[in-house]
Amino acid sequence: MGNVGLLFVGAVLFMNGLLLLEKVDARAAAVLNLFVGALQVLTPTYLIFTADNDPKKILAASGIYLFGFTYLYVGINLLAGLDSTGVGYYSLFVAIAALGYSFVNFRLFKDYPFGVIWLYWGFLWFLFFLLLGLKMDGLRIYTGWVTAIEGWVTGVIPAGLLLSGYWKHPTEIAIALAVFGVVVFVALWPLTRKSSRAAAARAAPAAGSVGAPT
Hints:
Elements (H helix, E strand, L loop, with lengths): L1 H19 L5 H24 L5 H8 L1 H17 L4 H23 L4 H22 L6 H25 L5 H42 L3
């Protein structure tokens, strides 16, 4: 059941990345956030109630709530037109918690791929904190691309491999994920900075013309 939820986490991250890149309308993206948020609250609740008081199963399921509440929060924010600061600071909480879940996956569960994936999520939610909580709008394009890419790398592809039985050779998968993340996200930075500067340059004359006397 958790793997099915992971598939749709990939879908909503991809959608939210397109939202940040201004390819998708905010209200349209809000609907999918609410659907996936509800799923990611129901899923861990079911897993915990059927865990037979197994602490490891309960611990593994508990992390899913972090994402369920994120997507519900984002969906409501988008529909109601609320300020994003609350989502941003909640994202800081998620980013810090993700480090703990990464440690647990590495040390307790010996699940090295998901140890790396939790680091991906920690990085992404920290970007959400910077963008939404601290209003560092220059990170919007970079964060949009990271979000969309993580939708596939941490959601859709792992879920597909797990559901089809092809999730094998975990050490090799963990190494591949770590190398991919470092190379791609470092390479994206200068590319998106150019786009951000170009967008700011285009916006500046428009802002000046609005404030100019007539």
